[in-house]
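Hey L., structure's done. Input below.
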Amino acid sequence: MEQYDVTLDRMRTFVRIAERGNLTAVAREFGHGQSTITRHLHELEQALGVSLFTRTTRRVALTDEGMRYYEHCLKILCLVEQASQEMRDTQQATAGTIRISCTAALGVLHISQLIFAFQDSHPGIRIEFSLTDERIDLVQEGVDIALRLGPLTDSALKLRALGESHRVLVASPVWLAAHGRPQVPADLIDLEGIRLSRVQGSDRLVLLGPDGRRTTLPFRGRLTVDHGLAAREVFLAGRGFGPAHLWLVEDCLADGRLERVLPDYELTSSPLSMLISPERAGLTRVRLCVDFLAEKIAGIPGIVR
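Output:
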């Protein structure tokens, strides 16, 4: 039987198969044929003398031995890349690709501009920018940094709190002229609300009054949307009122296209967090991007630390 060695290439292939659970996806990522990926895995298992995966027709899953080996491989590959970077000059250390995922509306309106500025300062860095409101698996999708609104529970990732995203109630002047200007929270109950789907608690409004009293109201409406930019367009079209992050509508409030509803009342804010893939957090280019985004995001309207 032919003898094989444990190599970094075989180890990297194994790690990506473990993270993505699909040989075809890893082959596309590496730019190889699936047969090459299968061969690398077979040779590594032969070198180790153990089976690293159980296989089905669609996916592969780590065995107990594979899980233990995966944890060791992450540490080894991270140390290899960090050691290599220490031997390069500054320009080389800040070259490579960073994969960033972001809540869609925030990414379109604000984070894209920050990425432009970051690349202007670091021209050797390539950015793959993904916009989604879905909670994705960073490791499985190969994402280095993710920006997310709302509470997070994934303790396996490095988390950096960026602040609270302030929200306000808004409507268009045309809609307010047609339906009247609410004076107290009870005036909202029978009005047409615009709700965001996939947002926990979107069927109610929680308002904090100037006297510190909290009021909870049912929030109803005939139109529900799943994207912040779509909600913004609905408000501008005069179809109803609803809560919006200040960074989503700040320009519309400034030029009068939208107005605040019950401006003396506050809505609950949402935490804004940065998630960082732990095995990538030590890379120079990732650290630079994390620090840059954290500093600049503090200047986005409505983000309060």
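The chain has a mean pLDDT of 90. The chain is about 40% helix and 25% strand.

-- N.
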